Amino acid sequence: MRRRTAPQLVLAFGLAPFLVPGAASGQDLRVSAGTIEDRRTTGKFFGGLEIELKLTGDDLADARAARVKLTKAQDESGRDLLPAKKPDEDFQKSSGRGAPDLKISLKNPARGASAIQEISGEVQLFAPSRDPAALILIDRFVSRMDKPIDSSALKSQQISARLVSPKVYRAQAKKREADLDAEMQKHKEEMKKEAGDDKAAEALMALVKGFAGMMNDVGDNDVILQIEDPQGKLLDVEVVGKSGVMDTRGSMSSGGLKILQYSEKIPADAKLRFLVKTQNAVLRAPFRLTNVPLP
Amino acid sequence: MKLVVLGLAALLAAAAPSKPSAIGVTSGDVTDRRRNDNTFAGLEVELKLTGEAAGEARGARATVEKAVDDTGRNLVKEGARPPEFEKPTGQGSPGLKLDLRNPARRAKSVREISGQVEVFLPDRDPAAVASADRFLSGMDRPIASPALKASRTEVTVVSRKTYDAEKKKDEERKKKEAESAGVAGAVVNAFSGLFEGLFGDIGENDVLVRVNDPGKKVFGVEVFDAAGKPIDNAGSMKVGDFWILKFTEKVPADASLRIYLMTAKAVVTAPFSLKDVALP
Q1: What is the DSSP code (8-state) at residue A46?
Q2: Is the Cβ pair A295, B35 closer than 8 Å?
Q3: DSSP annotation of A276
Q4: Domains in chain A, start-ordered, CATH in brackets?
Q5: Is A42 on the interface with B (CB under 8 A)?
C-alpha cells in the first residue's frame, strides 16, 4: 500500500524574476485544493474534473477579484489534464467579504489514477487599492446623462463611456426592436432551414426577442452605460453613495452595454466608480499543488 | 429409454425459437460522480426498456437487489426509498436511472447489477382506466366507476369553493398540530406554508381533483377532448390529497377525465441482470 503525503503548495516567494515585468508579486497568498469533483460519464456532456482552489493569506484583504492561469496539470499516470480548449480566464469577483471563488476545469484523470501529480500555474488577484489609477471616480454622475463621460483617467486607460438616461434608452429601444424585427424577417428563411421547421424557427425568434426585450426593459432608477473598452481593462462599474457602494437589485451586460438596476432613486451627489485592471493593481502568485488525492 | 425421451425433449426445447420477452432492459449512459465531500456523489446507471411492450409503457421503475463492482465492492445504497414510477417524456418509453454508490476508483466495470423492473401497461387491463365523460358537470361528486370501486379509490373533481374550504380546514388542523408540537412544529408549518404559497397557486382554468387513494393505485389523471385527444396541460402538482392539473386555456365542457390505475394485471414485473457494465 502506498502512502500519500498531504497536498503540498509552493508559495510565490522568490519567484518574482519569472513574473511579467511591471506586475506586482504576491507576498502572502496561499493556494490549496478544496472540493474536488471528478464527473465521469459515458454521455456526451458535463464530464470533467473540477477543482475548487481555496485562497488564504493577507494579500486577499484588498482583493476584489481573482483568476487562475494554469500551466500544468497531470495525473499520476502522466495524463495531461489541461483542457484542449483554452478555458475562460476572466476574473471572478468576490461575493461579499470572502475570497473570490476559483474553480478550475480539467479533463478527467485516468480511472485508475488515485491522485493528481501536479497542478501549477499562477493566481492573479485584482487589488485596486494598490494602484490609484485602478479606481476612477466620476462625481455627481446623475447630472451627466446622455453625453460622453469626460474623464482623462478613463481616456488614459483607453476606455470611453456614456451614461444614457432611461427615457432616451427606452426611445432607442423601440428603434432597436424594429431593427431586430426587420433583421429577423430578412433571415427568416435561413432560420427555418437551420431550425428544421416553421415552429422551431418561430420559437427561436421568440427567444431572441425575449432576450432583447429583457435588455430593453429598464426602470426609472437604473444606471445605463454604453462602454467602449477595446483592451478589456474594465472589471466593473459601481455606484458609490454616502455610505459606500450602493447595492443593486441586479445587473445586465451585453456587448458594451451595462445596466445596473436600482429600486430607489440615485442621490444627486452619488459617484460612479470604474474598476480598472491596471498592471500595478494585479498581484501575481505562482502556485504548485502536488499529490492531490482524487475522490 | 426414459433417458432418451428426456434427452430428446431437452434437445427440442433448446432448438425451439425463444419467445421474445415482453420487457427487458439494457444499460444506457453511466455517470460516476465522485466528490471528496461526498455531496451528491454516486453512480448513476441509465436503463433503457426493451421488448415489445416497451413502447406501450406509461410508467416504469427499477429497483436494485444486487450491484457489485469488479473489485467486489457493494454498490447498493442501504435504506434507500423505493423509486417513484417514471413517466415517458415525448414519444419514447420512460427513462429509468439507478442510483448506486460510487465504485472503487480502481474498478473498471460493474460486475453485476440485478433487480427488477415494474412497467405500467394500462392497455393490458380494461380495469386500469376509469373514465368520466363531461366531468365538469359532475363537480364535487365522487366519480362513479366500477374500476375505481375495485381499486378502493375515490376520485372527485372539486370546485374552487370546495378546494378553498378544504384547504382552510386542513390549514387549521395543521396549525393545531404544530401548536402541540412546539417550536419544531411551528417551523415545519411555516415552511410547508411557504412551499404551498410558492407552488400551490390555482389558476382559473385549472382542474382540481381530490384523490382518496389509500392503496396508492392512482398512477395519473388526464383530460381528453370530445374527439378522444389528450388536452395538453401546463404541468401538474399534488397538494395533500389534491391533484392540480394546470391549464392555460379553459377546458371544454364536453371534455372527459381518465384516471389510470395500477391494477395487478396492468403492472408487469420482470427481473433483469446486467453483467460487466464498463465504467467511464
Answers
A1: S
A2: yes
A3: E
A4: 8-131+281-293 (2.60.40), 132-277 (no CATH)
A5: yes
